[in-house]
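ping. complex inputs:
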Amino acid sequence: MARAVPAAAGSEMRPARPDLAPRPGLSRDEMESLQRRVAEAAVFEDDLPFDPTRVSLDTPETGNQTLTGAVAPGGDTDTDGDADTDTNSPPLVAGIDQSFLDDRALSAVVVLRGGEVVERVHAVSDLDLPYIPGLLSFREGGPILDALAELDCDPDLLVFDGSGRIHFRQAGLATHLGVVCDAPSIGVAKSLLCGTPDEDVDGRPEGWRTPIRADDSVDPVGGHPDGPETTIGYAFQSRQYDSRPIVNPLYVSPGHRLSAATAVDLVSRLSGSYKLPEPTRLADAYADEAKAQYED
DNA sequence: GCGACAG
DNA sequence: ATCTTGTCGC
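pong. complex structure:
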């Protein structure tokens, strides 16, 4: 049965695979086996509901970028009950990041359509686990799902702050939540968790990229055309300033429903004047901004 | 035992 | 992630 009510907040982005959700309270072994199941269910090939080349930060309309936030101007512009099967308008891209308050996490989501912010939501949730390398999705996954549940729109792409396939069991935060939501997702990390870069990553020019290949620390996943040489992501130099502080590259990896090559291409298209892609940068700023309202 | 590790 | 002053440069 369809909803009787218009479209209440939280009606979109509901988990498609709640059975694979990062439940807390599992033993370490149970968390790792769940990650193996997530990796099996993950798709590291392009299966996108939009054309990647349509993703950009440009705003067709007035050529004017409105990054100040706030919701849609004149209220409901469209009936928006489902995906946009309509126009050539850019896909909806959601940037997700968190800030912390004691034992609580503030998860922020900023959704962009081209260079415009169309929605911003956040949620404050209790944290159940400490940070453990390799098990990040079990600490931050639940809180992030809480925030995504507040969304009125249905993003075409989710951009996470952390790794996707660049993970010991090929199931990092971006992969885990991408699979649970069954949505295309990308992981953008500021440092490398595992895997080996093809080339030295130091002091590279903007736009430069090199494959990150699976090594001994990356477990093979049945069901995927894997091999010890499999490209699980890319080191990507998004920015490089004309002066000293050599900027480190970003480590981009596919979360779900896209290839490593498409993931970097999209991050490149979403890069503005800063190191982090715009959706992530805005979510990061919003997470800090909203945090102030909860500090004791 | 040693090394190594997203946020 | 978070704790934090000043400092260099467009």
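Residues 18-58+90-191+255-294 of chain A form a domain with the archaeoglobus fulgidus dsm 4304 fold fold (CATH 3.30.2170.10).
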